[in-house]
Write a structure and sequence with these properties.
The chain is mainly β and about 120 residues long. The protein contains no helices and 11 strands. The strands form 2 sheets. Strands 2, 4, 5, 6, 9, 10 and 11 form a 7-stranded mixed sheet that branches. The mean pLDDT is about 95.
Length: about 120
Amino acid sequence: QVQLVESGGGLVQAGASLRLSCEVSGRPFNFDAMAWFRRAPGYERELVAAIEWSGWRTWYKGSVKGRSTITTDNAKNTGLLEMDSLKPDDTAVYYCAEANFYGATVETAYLVWGQGTQVTVSS
């Protein structure tokens, strides 16, 4: 059984940095991509960043591009999302998810989800 567990969220001030971690257990060999989504209060869940497990390809939502870095550690079966220069608009519950192909932009393509970790950015 595949399980994803996020950690690293918290309450920070605007301008601070956070590193979110997603530990994957039971990951099948054919899960090729990890993504981070977020859901802000009153909004639908949106894709923030995605990465192929090999690390060759990444994608970022425009509003986080340039201040976020998504990486994977194959040896540890862990994915990371580092976010700098955080803004109040980044406040949301962040979820990691796994898909068996890179490039998926819709939630239904992601087969396994974590429980989410809260990120709150104060102004």
